[in-house]
């Protein structure tokens, strides 16, 4: 039986309390806002969201309700969760705009968030549904609900490098030499790709773009191809020869964000080709 993939996001998400916005002394209806910087270490992207003391209090109280006296599980962290949450949380006071109170809350709120992330990451091997689902889901809602951000930039890593255009004659030579070696040595397609990679690396390429000549003699922008992608190099360029290997390559993708990026690129390619066909 295949082990279920861990969907925990808090191995790459960090939260930092960066500043506090205090309303004017005699203002009414305004609350002190604690600005949180939420960062994704994989994409190097972040956004800011403001939270009040009441927001933090609602989060804590929700978590404590899930950890009432009837809660019993195998997770060590759950045994002290209630006490730890109260220790890491600032008390409610009347003079909440006092500078010392604000500073203490800044430290405590950061401490509380750090504790929750540590608790979540340390509970992934347990069977406790509260630790694995309720607590992380509550923190996700707290951090992301109502946040203004570019979701694509936050969750999907940018390409590691830009495609480097290699002249068509170099590509033709690389494919021809590699295929000749394949016929002589009876190597498989993945080994063939390795041969092509070796030839192209001599020209400084880690990825390349194939320039396709159109019927009118113009050159289309082409598509970036990652060297090492397993696909078949038959003389027949029918897409049906590529699909089985593409399906096999997809089965090895284990990152949902990477899969979203692949889907986005494929949709763009299909839309572009559809547009070309509809023009004629």
Automatic annotation (TrEMBL):
Record-linked InterPro entries: PX_dom, PX_dom_sf
Top-level taxon of the source organism: Eukaryota
Gene Ontology molecular-function annotations: phosphatidylinositol binding
Gene3D superfamilies hit by this protein: Phox-like domain
Domain PX: 1-150
Full protein name: PX domain-containing protein
Taxonomic source organism: Thraustotheca clavata
The organism's taxonomic lineage, starting at the top: Eukaryota, Sar, Stramenopiles, Oomycota, Saprolegniomycetes
């Amino acid at each position: 039986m295949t082990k279920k993939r861990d969907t925990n996001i808090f191995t790459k998400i960090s939260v930092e309390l960066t500043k506090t916005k205090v309303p004017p002394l005699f203002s009414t209806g305004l609350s002190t806002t604690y600005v949180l910087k939420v960062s994704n270490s994989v994409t190097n992207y972040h956004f800011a969201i403001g939270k009040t003391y009441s927001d933090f209090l609602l989060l804590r109280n929700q978590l404590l309700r899930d950890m009432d006296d009837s809660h019993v599980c195998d997770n060590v962290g759950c045994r002290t969760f209630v006490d730890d949450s109260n220790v890491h949380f600032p008390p409610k006071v009347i003079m909440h705009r006092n500078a010392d109170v604000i500073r203490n809350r800044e430290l405590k709120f950061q401490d509380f968030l750090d504790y929750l992330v540590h608790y979540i990451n340390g509970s992934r091997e347990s069977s406790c549904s509260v630790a694995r689902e309720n607590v992380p889901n509550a923190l996700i809602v707290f951090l992301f609900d109502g946040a203004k951000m570019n979701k694509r930039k936050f969750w999907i890593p940018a390409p590691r490098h830009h495609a480097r255009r290699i002249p068509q004659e170099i590509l033709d030579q690389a494919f021809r030499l590699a295929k000749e070696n394949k016929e002589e040595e009876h190597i498989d397609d993945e080994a063939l790709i390795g041969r092509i990679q070796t030839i192209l690396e001599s020209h400084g390429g880690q990825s390349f773009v194939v320039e396709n000549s159109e019927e009118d003699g113009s050159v289309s922008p082409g598509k970036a191809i990652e060297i090492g992608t397993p696909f078949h190099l038959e003389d027949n360029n029918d897409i049906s020869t590529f699909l089985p290997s593409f399906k096999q390559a997809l089965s090895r993708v284990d990152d949902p964000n990477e899969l979203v990026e692949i889907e986005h690129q494929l949709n763009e390619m299909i839309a572009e080709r559809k547009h070309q066909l509809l023009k004629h």
